[in-house]
Amino acid sequence: MRLLANGLQLVGPQRKAFEAAAYETAPDPTARDGIPGAGWTSPPAFSGPFIGREAEAAILTELLTTDAEQVISVVGVAGVGKTRLVSEVSKVILRQSDWRVVWLSSHETIASHMDTYELYAPSKLLSLGSGEDSRSGDMSKVLVVLDGASGGSARFLTELLRQVPRPHVLITARAPLGLPRELVFPVGPLAVPTLDKELKDLTANPSVRLLLWHLRRVSPWFQLRDDNAVAVARLCWLLDGLPRALELGAAMCTMRSPQRLVDQLIDQPHAIRDWRSSVGSGELLLSSLEESLSLLRGAEQALLEPLASSGGVWSLDEAAAAAELACADAIEHMELLVRCGLVRHNRAVGEPRFSLLNLVRTAHCGARSGHTPARR
Fold first, then answer.
1. Residue limits of the Orc1-like AAA ATPase domain (predicted)?
2. According to the model, what pLDDT value does residue 166 have?
3. Alpha-carbon distance 145 to 53, whole Å?
4. Tens-place pLDDT, residues 71-103
């Protein structure tokens, strides 16, 4: 359609009217009310229990259901469970009869059809999804969810925030978007167990609980016992408590024991690239992490370098000295790394300490060696 408009040398209002008419006669399969890619849907359904995010869900629900406007970006690496968390929060809010939820999940489509979206003010988009006129009606109890936002979504979001009074917007993204009034809500991996836990304590750990659920889904006879408990705990640690990685690891246990996977990851961390199953692949998982690393600025890269090369747990002063940064600068850059979910903040008693996720270290080494990320 863009090529045809170019061939006809249409510009300005004529071009917009032409494209709008085209979408009305040949609508996008994901369109609603003639708007391509609008994708107004209910929150997506997920199989399996909601594990380890109950506290975050309660906090988000409380923040969003206050009278004050809220623009919250749920930020974290791919596979950490941002969409699942936001879906659960949306369902809780939907149960409150006076609230409505508008779920928009295709931001790539927004970016590719931005000229057409200019015909429809964001406030009009909301009225189509919510059944309210956002300029005259009460939009204070309409939650707009924008799942998978990126830099290309900022223009749409900025206009939405400008036009809609008292917005309640919930965004999922890999990094903060820098929007007006944006509250960044970082989501890190699930807590991982220590190896000194007894069996009964191990089953209370959220990473172990999620891994066991996936293991029993593919191998119903699997039981956590004294002879495999250490391997299960180590597998959770090696996979960083990252929900998507735990699901993939469980899928790989159909023909392997947890101990065999642990041995493989310790000897050859990059072997995860060869993991493939119906739930995904290690190649795509690491490629997503490599993409997140590529978005970092030079100072964040410098701070991340010693954590990746030496491993272990670092204090802020130690990391700043290794990266040759002033402590004040190191605090700012470390905060971003933690917010983006690339670095784990170990909140033990005493001085805060930080460690790079194992899978991020593997992705970082792959990026430095010139590995080409898999095509999506």
1. 49-108
2. 73
3. 18
4. 899 999 989 999 999 999 988 888 876 787 878
Angle, CA 58 vertex, CA 55 and CA 63 arms, to 5°: 125
Statement: residue 208 has pLDDT above 60 = yes
Dist. CA 106–CA 116, nearest whole Å: 15
**Phi and psi torsions of 168, nearest 5°:** -125, 100
**Residue ranges of the domains in the chain?**
2-186, 199-267, 293-368
Distances (CA, A) of 52 to 206, 227, 257, 312: 5, 25, 25, 25
pLDDT score at 5 = 53
Identify the three-state secondary structure at position 43. coil
Q: Which of 219, 35, 248 is nearest to 125 (CA)?
A: 35
Determine what percent of the chain is predicted with pLDDT higher than 90: 24
Residue 307 structure tokens: 């954590």
Cα-based distances in Å from 105 to 108, 173, 187: 9, 12, 19
CA proximity to 296, closest of 331, 334, 244, 264: 334
Q: What pTM did the predictor assign? A: 0.79
Residues facing residue 75 across a β-bridge: 173, 186
Q: What is the pLDDT of residue 359?
A: 92
- Match 């039981």 to its residue by tokens: 223
Specify whether domain 293-368 bears CATH 3.30.1330.10.
no
**Over 90: is that where the pLDDT of 262 sits?**
yes
CATH class of 2-186: alpha beta
| Contact present, 143 and 102 (Cβ < 8 Å) | yes
Q: Is there a contact between 99 and 71 (Cβ–Cβ < 8 Å)?
A: no
Q: What sections of the chain are H helices per DSSP?
A: 2-7, 12-25, 54-64, 82-94, 107-112, 114-117, 122-130, 154-163, 199-202, 206-218, 229-238, 243-251, 258-267, 282-294, 298-310, 316-323, 327-339, 358-368
Separation between Cα atoms, residue 5 and residue 17, nearest integer Å: 11
